[in-house]
Design brief:
about 35% strand; single chain; seven-stranded mixed beta sheet; disordered N terminus; Metallo-beta-lactamase, Chain A; 17 strands
């Protein structure tokens, strides 16, 4: 099963969390899977998952995972920076399904507008810098800032978004205080922490957002949970979680 269902009346965007930094986005027009990663040798998304576009924010396993298998089965595009696409080619990715994203150059298909920005993180094994792309996703009438795995915010502190998804685990990426600071400056309607390795990280993130950013609602999505967001009656922003 994949993102092939018709969304209910009035629903603009559905966000599914598969764990860590793996999320799927679905509108009435299209679907996007971001970072179908592999963790401790295990994939987070089944190979037969149905989706239109796949994006990996960097070249390591926790972003690329089984993107090649999913793309082959779904006939989906795979998007990523140059390093990531080279990695996907080495994994057997079909050249006609691959597209290199370049910083600040818009990728657009019907129902999806994607603007990548160059960020970076650290390799947990070597400490080397790894190029990571933050994604500004416009689909279903919503704007989502997705930072993937990053140790820097780039322009995202100044980009307007309805939903901001940021790592909070520390180490080679943001820790909680960096993620909270970003959310305070960016002021999204909803802030979602990702890559959580300890429940306390999510608790602290939500507590500090509540305390310091009255305009932003912290939402912790557990693995397998789905959030639906919409504009009700034209001007009331609503969300539900199942």
């Amino acid at each position: 099963m994949g993102l092939n269902g018709i969304l209910g009346c009035g629903l603009l965007l559905k966000i599914t969390h598969f764990g860590k930094t793996t999320f799927a986005f679905e509108s009435n027009d299209t679907s996007l899977l971001v970072n179908p990663g592999k963790w401790r040798g295990k994939t987070l998304v089944p190979d037969n998952y149905g989706v239109r576009v796949i994006a990996a924010t960097h070249k390591l396993d926790d972003a690329v995972g089984n993107a090649v298998e999913i793309a082959a089965n779904a006939k989906a595009w795979i998007l990523g920076n140059e390093e990531t696409i080279e990695r996907v080619k080495a994994d057997g990715g079909k050249p006609w399904l691959l597209h290199v994203l370049r910083s600040e150059i818009v990728y657009e298909i019907p129902g999806l507008k994607l603007t990548p920005y160059a960020l970076h993180r650290r390799n947990p094994d070597t400490g080397d810098r790894v190029e990571n792309m933050g994604l500004y996703i416009e689909m279903g009438g919503m704007k989502v800032s997705f930072l993937g795995d990053t140790a820097v915010r780039g322009p995202f502190g100044k980009i307007e978004s309805d939903v901001l998804i940021t790592p909070v685990s520390g180490g080679e990426v943001f820790d909680v205080k960096d993620a909270v600071s970003l959310c305070i400056d960016a002021g999204p309607r909803i802030a979602i922490p990702s890559r959580i390795t300890d429940k306390e990280q999510g608790i602290k993130f939500a507590k500090y957002i509540d305390q310091f950013s009255q305009s932003t609602l912290p939402v912790i999505l557990e693995k397998g949970q789905v959030m639906e967001i919409q504009w009700a009656a034209g001007n009331e922003f609503r969300h539900t979680i199942t």
